[in-house]
Amino acid sequence: MTAITDPTTDAPLTTAAVARIPADPTAGRAPRSNTPVIEFRQVQKTYDNGFQAVAPFDLSVAAGEIVTIVGPSGCGKTTVIRMAAGLSSVSGGELVRTTEQLAYVFQDPTLLAWRSVRSNVELVAKLKGVDKATRSAAATAAIEAVGLGAFERSLPRQLSGGMKMRVSLARAITSAPELMMMDEPFAALDEFTRANMQMELLRLWRLNAFGAMFITHSISEAVTLGHRIVVMAARPGRIARVIDSPSPPTLDDAPRDLDALAATAAVVSELLSEA
Ligand code: ADP
């Protein structure tokens, strides 16, 4: 597979991204560093109608760390990620982002219907003014990375739901993100495709080692993907518990302890039933 290159340095992204993460011999090969890519310090959100959607909230995401956020409908998950993305203002506290290398993946892949897979993948880089040769090379690598090499000339209507989501992921990784913000990206997919996409995301993460905030309704998804799992409660939206995964995803794809993950899922389920 072709290495994805960093558009600014032309260095292979795999190496460059992994090199950003300080080695931590004690971390069971989970790439946690002490450098946050985003930090919420007592961040809260009160909407204009006076409704407090999110009570003061502390959370940080380290470089290369996947933080999943799970909670019942209406507990403020989307509000949190919209504030993280700068799409919604913060009513109090401080939100610090240490990177501008951001990418977003939402439930709707938002592909332009009249543009090919390649053209859709290149679009964000094009809008950012990245030169044609650089964005074309990055798109080729990203399309290969998500297994759509044979479909790069296809139009969105010729693709399945899972394939469209792969295009959305490819578009996100072409910008060499240090922070991926994902708001229920796989929620509209059938169960089988969803499980495949979770594995696909972890494969891309092993290549690119991005930090991520990943919002989900699904307990198993939160536990499968997260280095840490944030369980939220509602009225007002707040953190009920942050759980360190007992068997997190690792860059070397070490086998996961499925019993430990199942036990974590049971704890999350219990917390949500109290939320
Ligand atoms: P979730 O993503 O967990 O379902 P949201 O962040 O969408 O939760 O919403 C949290 C709460 O904030 C909900 O009670 C919702 O009704 C409320 N809310 C969301 N957007 C607005 C808004 N623009 N104005 C007022 N209340 C809002």
List key phrases describing it.
275 residues; alpha/beta; Rossmann fold; 2 domains; 6-stranded mixed beta sheet; 23% strand; disordered N terminus
- Give the strand line-up of the largest sheet: 5-6-7-3-8-9
Give unreliable regions as ranges. 1-30
Number-wise, the strands total 9
The CATH architecture of the largest domain: 3-Layer(aba) Sandwich
What is the CATH class name of the largest domain?
Alpha Beta
Q: What are the distinct ligands in this entry? A: adenosine-5'-diphosphate
Give the CA-CA distance, first to last residue. 45 Å
Q: How many individual domains? A: 2
Portion in helices:
25-40%
3D shape: globular
Strand content: 15-25%
Radius of gyration: 18 Å
Number of helical stretches of at least 4 residues: 8
Structural class: alpha/beta
Largest sheet: 6 strands, mixed
Can you describe this structure?
With 275 residues, the protein is α/β, with parallel strands linked by helices. The chain folds into two domains: 142 residues, P-loop containing nucleotide triphosphate hydrolases (Rossmann fold, 3-Layer(aba) Sandwich), CATH 3.40.50.300; 63 residues, no CATH class. Helix content is 35%, strand content 23%. The protein contains eight helices and nine strands. The strands form two sheets. The protein has a six-stranded mixed beta sheet, with helices on both faces. A hairpin with a 4-residue loop joins strand 8 and strand 9. The N terminus is likely disordered.
